[in-house]
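Field reference: sequence -> structure
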Amino acid sequence: MPKISVLNMEGNSVEEIELNKDIFDVEINEHVVYLVVKNYLANQRQGTHSAKTRAEVRGGGRKPWRQKGTGRARQGSIRSPQWRGGGIVFAKKPRDYSYSTPKKVRRLALKSALTSKVRDGELIVVEDFQLEEAKTKNFVKVLEAIKADKKALVVFPGNDEKLRRASNNIPNVKTTMADNINVYDILKYNSLIVTKDALRVIEEVFN
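Structure field:
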């Protein structure tokens, strides 16, 4: 069973805890991770793109020149796709890109992502975040003390408005609740910072 040190806000180790091996020490399945990340990105697409076909472009009702005798190729409309300002061939139209993946696949991908963070030494467990004021400089000091990477995902157990406000102005730092973590964010950020309580919530999600 993997073990990890729990740090306080000064960056000092206060205890060592054991991680659930069924979540943080599984065989990493890269293909499943790929499928879930691909699904996540597809679901983020708005699908509001819209281009005009030759039937929707304004103008072009008159034939540009007569069919024969000019020495030029025959043309029926200046709004044909080969003309500048003409319609688009197979124009994109608004559509829904979202789809779903099986729950088993999503759970396995999440376990693989969490395991990779543990094995790469990118998981940081913090005892708790007790900020006196919701100030960015205070939160930056904590991140520096625990030696977090500049790109960090901070996970806390519930909605922490003070922590969210303190981290809003820090580039490449994102905060989220434990029951909202996803594979894409875990892999995107170099450091995964989790509080002890958030760790318990994550373990409860898999029960």
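Note: The chain is about 35% helix and 15% strand.
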